# Entry
Amino acid sequence: MSEVHAARRARLRERCQASGSASALVSRPANVRYLAGAAPHGAVLLLGRTEDLLLCPGPPDERPAEGRPDEALRVERLPGPGGDPAVAAADLAAGQGGECLAVEEHHLTVARHRAIRSVVPRLRLIDLGGAVEQLRVVKDEEEISCLRIGAEIADQALGELLESILVGRTERHLALELERRLVDHGADGPAFATSVATGPNSGRRGHRPTDRRVEEGDFLSVCLGASYRGYRCEIGRTFVIGTSPTDWQIELYDLVFAAQRAGREALAPGVAHRDVDRAARQVLDSAGYAESLPALTGHGVGLEIDEDPQLGPAAMGKLDACVPVTVEPGVHLPGRGGVRIDDTLVVRPEADGGPELLTITTKELLAL
# Structure
């Protein structure tokens, strides 16, 4: 992976030079990991005029889940406690003869920005913007492989839960069990806080599990994800507990399933982000659920669970090949519950078989 990380830093260096800066200070942890192979707590990456450097406030964490720094990259620990690696990196950039330093203004705090200016007042600071985030959108096959393994782990954990007794157990208990199963199957940990929602809570996006117990006839919606080597995927499914689903449950489920299928089928290189959202949204909108729809149909995933692109009505840009995204429409009816179906897929051209589905747990409406 050393060559991969060096190539990523080279692409960023080209962007910096095009904007008039020979050096860059990367402080956002996911961006540091993308460029350096690891992001020890508090570390920053200096893309310097003469040398690239990973500066850490303490010794790097050796846990495999945290990654290992690129072997070709010099790692330096601050000599004493209480120092700020970002300030030290800016000082080094000035010492390399730089006149301008690109920084991630969307991540640096005002206090940190002021501290840098006080140490290197003659160094001109410009905004790096989302340059690294833009590089991260298209994944290489190694990254996609990590997402694929994470999806397999999430599928395993969910499949085992479905084989257990659910009635009488609380949302909170089920969420904790799912997260334990993720780790048991090899995940670094959950990709985000696991959501388990029952009865009137079901179908609610981002629902935090409560002490409500699963009851016969409930909709049960689950949203979970695994983190594997730092890469995060997502899956969401909805089931019925104990009995055959009622007519309204079947009707609502079939509608959300049709919307999710429309969104999945719209994924292709060159398709506008907003058109993927429109494909799914129109199905639900035409059935009278415009007021119940989430702001986004989906989003990118990778080193963070919510990355670009954003698949929403106002989203700009078009999809590229090898971009992993979620498609996750849902409808929540206050007081009754609802349905959410969520998959992680990789955009692929038609010649390669179309979008690659990573999360394969059945989307059939099962009565558990």
Summary: The longest helix spans residues 141-162. DSSP finds nine helices and 19 strands in the chain.
